Amino acid sequence: MLRTRFPIAIIAASFCTCFVPTVQGQDIRPIHRWSLDNSLADTGTVGGLDLSLAGLLPGDEPFFQTDIPPISNNAPTNSLEFSGLTDSFARATNNGEPFTEDMTHTVVLWAKHDSFDELVAQRWISWGNCCNPPSNRRYFFGPGGGSKVDLGYISTTAADGPVPAIVQWDHWAAVRDLPNEKVFYYLNGVQVVEADVPAMIGDNFVIGPFDPAVGESDTNRELRVGNQFNDPTNAIEPLDGRLADLAIFDVALDAGQIQHVINNSAVSVPPPAIPTDRREWRDDVAGDWLTGGWFDPTGAAGTDAPNSNMSAPEFGAAITSPRTVFTDDPVTVNRIQFDNANSYAIAGNGTVTLETNPDGAVNPTVEVLSGSHQIQLPLALAGETTVTAADGSTLNLNNQLTLNGNDLNIDTTGTGAVNINHSVNSGGGTVTNSGTLGTAGSTTIGGDLASSGTLDFDIGGSLLDEFDSITVGGTATVSGSLHAELVNGFSLLGGESFTLLTAGTLIDNEISLIGPLVGTLNLNVIGNSLVLNGGSGAIPGDYNADEIVDTMDLNLVLFNWDSDSVPSEWSQHVPAGNVGIEELNGVLFNWNRTTPLSAVPEPHGLLMGLLGMSLLARRKKGAKTGHQTTNQ
Fold first, then answer.
1. Would the pLDDT of 554 be above 80?
2. What's the mean pLDDT when you consider all of the chain?
3. What are the boundaries of each domain within the chain?
4. How far apart (Å, rounded) are the C-alpha atoms in residues 425 and 628?
5. Is 32-263 assigned to CATH 3.40.50.2300?
6. Distance of alpha carbon 163 from the chain centroid
7. Fewer CB within 10 Å of terminal CB in the chain, N or C?
């Protein structure tokens, strides 16, 4: 935004509130867990789903066995074996189900397959009843047709994952993130699938309690381990291999928590990891990031500068006037917080990198709680990053922003805003705006832009470098609103056109104009651009609204020169500031115009206007100074 551009120098903030990390709570326990090491008892925090073996033939060996030699890569040494030859599987003895509605959850387990038949599913866990009733209520996780791992609801499969290895223990996890409508698969702690899945798949998808009137009473939507759900079409489809340490959590576990399960067990997981290196700026002067006055607000003795992906620097209440914190070296952090009515500027010849913490559990953030602040250094992302600005606060990014293929999410509240005032090098990432995004002057975004919030533009003149604009190298998908207003005393003469956004591809999902220019200018999509223009309307330069631009309008300008108020006969195109050259040009360049869209005036019209201007200017000068004048 033009009005928020600052000089590259002094700025700082104050601390009313400290940076608030993720709450450190108790360990999270699964709602169901079956260790499958010589026990079929449900040891989760919600019980009632004990299992029993089914499908055994007379003389079968016990199905709890120990692998010899000991299993490597943290896999359990005790497991439950399933024989594809004997149709063995474990089933809930009470026809129960893990949860009663579509909800956020995570399933974790160890699996080892002895063989595959690509025509036969080898589900690790499932429940439901196919195919009666027609709504096909069912759930499954594990290899399906083609032996690819998938997660399914009703008759919809979320996404195909990899084919499990043969005769090898691997750890698998499926995360169902309901609020974000996402599904993730993890193999040995590494995310291998991310897929979009609607919050509800099918209007009738409600996993209800046992109902003997639906399907056969002994298999009605029962939980099964090592077997496909009850499916009379495909018959029994058992696993040929082993399973161990199966658990269901009622939260979406992150990568760090899943790794904890692998390294330990599914008995419990810690809360999500948070940055532990909190540092608060305490000098009420400008200072060097790496040698300045930091302290640990938690009371620990640490005073070293924040410079790692577990660091959370806080720029808050210590300062009483604008300050600059500078660095000529690269620094890396996970989170930054600003909270002061005074402004901080992060400046120098170094760089700032926002990086996901080591466990991959906490993505980078920049949080502005109050005040208007600047990052004047080049900023690089090493993880999906979210920037927030509270009501009344502003963050200005005044140097190159490099996404490195990561997304930048802008989420502001109220009048809070984020201004990108320099070029964006995406590398494949997307700038996603669900708040208010502005700019100062001309900004280029090298990748994609997705805006469902507000795009904010200031118009300080009709020349290209006098109004804000954004150029998007990739695809710009816009909805929400576009706010534009006149600044720096600029007033419209009529017929102006402002190209505010241009993209390689523009997808307009009904973006609308808001703010003081509604009714004065129109927002149009022209090719791959968003353009504000006047269209038809009042005649430019016709200040007294008599449908012609003539000496009457010129007199209004000259006799009110430099005035910040105008008489009542100045009825349209009222200037935003003092009467001056903009209003004079409005008359001269539209001399004798009688329609809003008439051509530029002929040279003789301009000459007449200039002559009139000269005479009336002399008369005005005399009147202003109080001296009587006579024509020469």
1. yes
2. 79
3. 1-25+274-440, 32-263, 551-625
4. 65
5. no
6. 32
7. C
